[in-house]
Amino acid sequence: MLLRKLVPVFALSLASAGVSADRLKPEDAVEYRQSAFRLMSFQLGVLNPLHRRQAYDDEAFVYRAETLSRLAELALEGFTEDSKGQQSRTQARMWDEREAFETRLREFAETTAQMAERSAAGDSRATRDLFRQTLQSCKSCHDRYRIE
Amino acid sequence: MLLRKLVPVFALSLASAGVSADRLKPEDAVEYRQSAFRLMSFQLGVLNPLHRRQAYDDEAFVYRAETLSRLAELALEGFTEDSKGQQSRTQARMWDEREAFETRLREFAETTAQMAERSAAGDSRATRDLFRQTLQSCKSCHDRYRIE
């Protein structure tokens, strides 16, 4: 099994990374967040069967959970103020509740990061609970903020 | 400065994560890799001005380099065998040299992971050299395998 050498990971919040997404043009911002969500969806597509098999301590579970968390941070960047007028699947309501929305997405990134951590630690029960919380978080956020 | 608690990162190669990208349908595979490349391009858009300012030990540099590495691993997943017939920007040559191509992309992921590590360690000279190597790697791979 090929284990790449550990890379110290600074799971910085975007704020702490001092990075502004201002350089994203409005149309690029939409593509950017859609790209992140598309990749997130695939990570869940890998996690779901692992969850059904209760393979919570599988290395793939750790890897996909960690990736999901990183991608959620990127998705968050794509919701730039000036992309508000762009055609997308974002409900108008999101812009009225932007702070609450961002909090949710940030919490999702936290939950999935914790899930990666618990999975790596072999704590299957906590990993399972966090996975359920993850699915619930996807659903409730889509219900409220995504145009179906 | 908001520093999220450290998440242990298992920068597993995809092979070690035991995950197969077989579940990606051919058309989804193209979208998947394009999504990853799109996000990668933005990470470089953040790294470039940091490079110009020689801000190699900036936390944003670490974060973006690490993100770039992760995304390269995802991009690699999108080059599934049965997506060969799909319309995309991939040169036909890539399919003839697929092993060499995959090696290049894997090396790119390694180089950028090292860059994150050197940046985090405050080793600006090594970080700068790895960044130049990163740009060279983008260019030579695009020249050879991407339709302009």
From TrEMBL, chains A, B:
Post-translational modification as stated in the protein's UniProt record: Binds 1 heme group per subunit.
Extent of the signal sequence: 1-21
GO cellular component terms listed in the entry, alphabetical order: periplasmic space
Sequence positions that bind heme c: C138, C141, H142
Assigned keywords, A-Z: Electron transport, Heme, Iron, Metal-binding, Signal, Transport
Any one Gene Ontology BP term: electron transport chain
A Pfam family annotated for this UniProt entry: Cytochrom_C_2
GO molecular function: electron transfer activity; heme binding; iron ion binding
Gene3D superfamilies: Cytochrome c/b562
Protein name per its UniProtKB record: Cytochrome c
Lineage, broadest ranks: Bacteria, Pseudomonadati, Pseudomonadota, Gammaproteobacteria, Oceanospirillales
